[in-house]
Amino acid sequence: MPIKSFKSIRFVLALIATAVGAEAAKPNFLIIMADDCTHNDLPAYGGRNAVTPNIDRLAGQGLVFNRAYLSEAMCQPCRAELYSGQFPMRNGCAWNHSASRPTTRSMPQYLRPLGYRVGIAGKVHVKPDESFPFEKVAGFDPSCVRDPTRPHDLTEAKRFMSRKRDESFCLVIALVEPHVPWVMGDASKYPSRKIRLPPNIADTPRTREDFGKYLAEITYMDGQVGEILQALEESGQADNTIVLFTSEQGAQFPGCKWTNWDTGLHTALIARWPGKIAAGWRTDAIVQYADVAPTLVHAAQGDASKHKFDGSSFLPVLLGKADRHREFAYGVHNNIPEGPAYPIRTITDGKYRYIRNLRSDEIYIEKHLMGSQGNGKLNNPYWATWVFDSWNKPDVYKLVKRYLSRPVEELYHTAGDPYEMANLIGNSEHARAEARLSAELDKWLKSQGDPGIAQDTDKAIQAARQGRHLYYPPDQIREVNP
Asked: Which pTM does this prediction carry?
């Protein structure tokens, strides 16, 4: 065999080996989280006010999930779900400012055996530490209520990305905007008179002012997203990194955070993986935060079946091999310690949403949104203007009543009514959807051992903190979820 031909064969074999190695290489994971950002306030989801060039660019480079959800529209429960792959009842964090069970496991335990360094920067807000043993990465403010937010520094994040080239990394950067107080960014870019308020937000002068400050924080957050993505690019690892951007739950406006309406539980989710995830596409596949951890394990060539996940991998959707994932997404709300007990349960199929308010005999109170900190300083001053204007403005009164007084059941055709303003319960044209979703919600509650009303109690919280599960036998679940 001529030398030249032999060298050519060796060259071809080397190329094949390189290609196979590249195919087998485990991707890095970079998860960027906003904080309290209603998904459809982002232009990528139809928002008409905020300017977000970096998120828009990311959406053009990756896959946008039209129907991504979290199970509880509060910071700690949704983060515990994201990191553990388990729903709130299963991991134990079914209330804000609580804790998961000590037996809960999360991304660090899932990914480290697969050769990953797993770190978190910014807001952590999950506990106990033994269940969430992330490596702490400095550079982003961990406090979502500081006024103002501390300046960010990407030095440590860059070091984490590049520290060991023979190891893959998983890095969560949890930003603290646009969580209140809305003090970051340039609110002058959003003059009140030009803001187009969503139909679930009352139109008062103070609301317009505060909404402009909220929009400014979205733009500030978008700038951080751009800097983080630039840092990833400079690390030389962008092509082998799955980037996930998510907006967390809805903002601190009535009908968004702390609710089971779509503007509370629906989250933005954008995924980029150059050469693997098709750019500029959208999918209607339904996914939940509980599905993220098993997806990362799957992408890292691990066996997700070894873990006690409630979610499942949507990697086939990312790779364009499937256009469906789960049939339903589920949601819960337990109001303690945000206010008096007010348990809510919900289910959606992406088109319709069905809600049960288990204590519809009570009024709904959320102390942060509606009250002060005890020093006379209101957390959200606009709320008082809603109440003040409700006596002579019927549209404002309806929104105040919608928030405070909930019916036993709600049904919305979310696909045609994205802000869920028209309750269709009892409407014969939608009876089939109502019956289907109600039955499926019952099945899920039984599978979770959800006791319903009894869940939103101090006794249940203490049980969860002690690693116990307060539940009722399956045949009694329907009785406590009237």
From this structure: 0.93
Length of the chain: 482
Is-cis flag, bond preceding 108, omega within 30? Answer: no
Please report the DSSP string for 306-354 in residue order: GS--SS---HHHHTTS-S--BS-EEEEE--TTTSS---EEEEE-SS-EE
Q: Is residue 75 scored above 80 in pLDDT?
A: yes
| Whether residue 155 sits in one domain with residue 102 | yes
Distances (CA, A) of 115 to 27, 112, 306: 11, 5, 16
Phi first, then psi: give them for residue 266, nearest 5 degrees.
Answer: -75, 130
Measuring CA to CA, which residue among 225, 230, 229 is closest to residue 174?
225
| 8 Å CB contact between 34 and 259 | no
Structure tokens at 14: 């080397």
Amino acid at 355: I
Same domain for 146 and 224, yes or no, is yes
DSSP of 414-476, one letter per residue? TTT-TT--S--TT-GGGHHHHHHHHHHHHHHHHHHT--GGGGSSHHHHHHHHTT------GGG
Percentage helix, strand, coil for the chain under 3-state DSSP, each rounded to 5: 40, 15, 45
Rounded Cα–Cα distance for residues 332 and 347 (Å): 9
All residues at 6 or more sequence positions from 118 whose CB lies less than 8 Å from its CB, including other chains: 107, 108, 111, 112, 134, 135, 169, 170, 171
Burial class (CB in 10 A: 0-12, 13-18, 19+), 106: buried
Range of the domain at 35: 26-326
Work out whether strand 344-348 and strand 353-357 pair parallel, antiparallel, or are unpaired: antiparallel
As a whole number, the mean pLDDT across the chain is 92
The DSSP code for 378 is B
Section 11-33 average pLDDT: 60
For the chain, count helices (H), then strands (E). 16, 12
Last residue of a domain, one of 286, 310, 326: 326
The answer to whether residue 230 scores a pLDDT higher than 60 is yes
Whether the CB-CB separation of 295 and 313 falls below 8 Å is answered with yes
Do 310 and 439 reside in the same domain of the chain?
no
Is residue 135's pLDDT more than 90?
yes
